[in-house]
Amino acid sequence: MDSWEVVEHAAALARRGEEFALATVVWREGPSSGQTGSRAIVTAAGEVHGWIGGACAEPSVIREAQRAIADRQPRLLLLGTPEQFGSVPDGMTVIPIACQSEGALEVYVEPVLASPHLVVIGASPMAQTLRDLASALGWHAELVDRADLDDAPLDGRSVVVVATQGHGDEEAIERAVAARPIYVGLVASRRRGESVLGYLADRGVPKDVVERIRVPAGLDLGHTSHREIAVAVLAELVQLRAAGALAPEGGPGDAANALSAPAEAVDPICGMTVPADHTSRPFEHGGVTYYFCSAGCRGTFERDPAAHVPREARC
Questions:
Q1: What are the residue ranges of helices labelled H in the chain?
Q2: How many domains does the chain have?
Q3: How far, in Å, CA of 78 to CA of 64, rounded?
Q4: pLDDT (tens digit, 9 = 90+) per residue, 109-128?
């Protein structure tokens, strides 16, 4: 797909709530297969849609894109040899690659995170205001009446606020926690909240699930109106999202996911970081397996391994 088709596909993924990174070539030094303005989508699983460069650049961009999704931070990558860039400003990531074409690229990688899925259970003016405010932020916000709980679209990616105002709070909160959403908050007084939590405990709801319920939901703003309570609840949710607390457990934003990234190795010829698997032309020497970015680097190593074995591996 061309550059604009990548943008259209990215918009479709975002609407579906999928997380990915958008990589854009913002500068190049030829010869390089990546062109200024080239774009690609990189998913958390490492799938690529679009084009940002050839065999030298693509593995590095994929790796950094996956890291961007995991830590929720964009980055500007400089791919090439240090001599090609001179003085590098703070905040840029230099990735040495010794591509035989001697080209270089500057790639901006931006994580595109899923909008929170907010489900507000209730029919009060406060519940409606909360839904409207969240929608104004670009969140996927839905208002569900207590009578329609059985059809409520709740899952492990949902953020649930129960605002039934004493009309079936217990049943509503029990139904909500059964879906194991990211967040469950109850709009109620502390005394009322303690009663609801006690009900859940008596019903056999696991202690760790009960302890995760926020009650009362929202920042403590003192005595406020119903609509101001909606502001307080949304403010808490925004605060939690900014801290990364509303990322789906085990999803791209989970720190554990970053730790499970594929193993990597350094090409002993050019110093490029490559995947430590069969795609990187493995070659065994002295009981150690080495990996290479290209057939040329492997060939150079094969002709005289002793000259290129890292010093620490010779001991």
A1: 3-15, 57-71, 125-136, 169-178, 190-202, 207-211, 226-242, 255-259, 295-303, 311-314
A2: 3
A3: 11
A4: 999 988 889 999 998 899 99
pTM equals 0.65
In order of 26, 172, 224, 268, the CA distances from 184 in angstroms are: 42, 11, 21, 51
**Final residue of a structural domain among 160, 194, 218:** 218
Whether a cis peptide bond, with omega within 30° of 0, leads into 74 is no
Last-in-domain residue among 79, 112, 145: 112
Q: b/e string for 243-280 if b means 16 or more Cβ within 10 A?
A: eeebbbeebbbeeebeeeeeeebbbbbbebbbbbeeeb
Q: Give ∠ CA 256-185-224 in degrees, rounded to 5.
A: 135
How large is the C-alpha radius of gyration of the chain?
Answer: 26
Q: What are the tens digits of pLDDT across the range 222-266? A: 878 888 999 999 999 999 988 878 876 654 444 334 434 568 888
Contacts of 130 (CB under 8 A, 6+ apart): 118, 120, 141, 161, 163, 230, 233, 234
Tokens 């040329």: give the residue.
296
The dihedral through the CA atoms of 44, 46, 47, 49 has a sign that is positive
